[in-house]
Amino acid sequence: MGKLLAIDGLNIVRRVYEASAEPDSMEKASIALRHALSSFRRLLETHQPSHVLAAFDHGGPTWRHALYPRYREQRAPMPACLRDALPGFHEKLAAAGMHVLSVPEVEADDVIGTGVLRWLSEGRGAAIVATTDKDLHCLIAHGALVWDHFKNEWHDDAWVRGRFGVAPELLPDLLALMGDVTDGVPGVSKVGMKTAAKLLNAYGDVDAVLAGAGILKTPIGERLRAERDILMVSRQLVRLKTDVPLGVTWNMLALEKT
To answer: Which terminal residue of the chain has fewer beta carbons within 10 Å of its beta carbon, N or C?
Structure first.
């Protein structure tokens, strides 16, 4: 049996880069990417995968922007010095035996979701996702595990329930209800994590919440009715696209020992 390690590339790179309070510069980018490369190598040493999928955002508009033009409009762009240094970083990852995947018009999350679900559905072995991104924790419902590289800890079903108050399979619906300021996902007004979790645990998924709580003559019921359409859009935005044409074979993702 094999072991797939899916790495959320920019999640690690940006976290390392932003850990320094120094102003943006080519030197800062160079130092950050040197540390990030060490992080990638440490992931390989820690998990000893047979296959590696190192996913990076391609950049530019995605299908989510086409669906909702205000998606991520408040997010600060990647510093130019870091963006310009990424191609060279990708070459170093390739030299270390990792195949970098970056697909136009989709996010790295979608690439990871597609690859991990395909791997698990084919019964090829364990799947590990290296990320701190909450959106990818829904993959735990399908048998994957999430590894927080920065805290050196595993995230499983129990962790998701303890952190978010719902099962991993309900995490996208939780994010749809509460919204996500970072990504510009609107959600339902005045619905936070606790309220969203309470609704989902009482009624089920978003459709069941709308069918149940959405008919109540209460403030939350009124907001659910009034904001039904934007909730549907929010749910689409937070769901992973899992049919991305990756353009690679498993043999291409096999870790090349160096």
So the answer is: N
How far is 37 from 129, CA to CA, in rounded Å? Answer: 17
**Cα atoms in the 13 Å half-sphere on the side-chain side of 216:** 14
The rounded distance, in Å, linking the Cα atoms of 245 and 242 is 9
* Residues contacting 18, CB < 8 A, separation 6+: none
- Quick one: residue 101, left, alpha or beta (phi over 0 = left, psi -120 to 50 = alpha)? beta
Say if residue 15's pLDDT is above 60. yes
Contact 173, 200 (CB under 8 A): yes
Cα 46 from Cα 39, distance rounded (Å): 10
Q: What's the pLDDT score for residue 126?
A: 98
Rg of the chain on CA atoms, in Å: 19
Which residues does 179 contact at the CB level (< 8 Å), separation at least 6? 185, 186, 187, 188, 191, 234
Tokens 């320094």, located at residue: 20
In the sheet that 2-8 helps form, which strands lie side by side, from edge to edge?
99-101, 51-55, 2-8, 125-130, 145-148, 153-155
Helices 80-95 and 26-47, axial angle in degrees (round to 10): 30
Tokens representing residue 255 in the block: 């870790």
Q: Which two tokens stand for residue 33?
A: 């990417």
What proportion of the chain, given as a percentage, has pLDDT over 70? 99
Helices (H) and strands (E) in the chain, counts: 12, 6
Q: Which two tokens stand for residue 179?
A: 């919204």
What's the pTM value of the predicted model, to 2 decimals?
0.95
Residue of 249, 2, 240 whose CA lies nearest to 111 = 240
Closest C-alpha among 40, 45, 49 to residue 2: 49
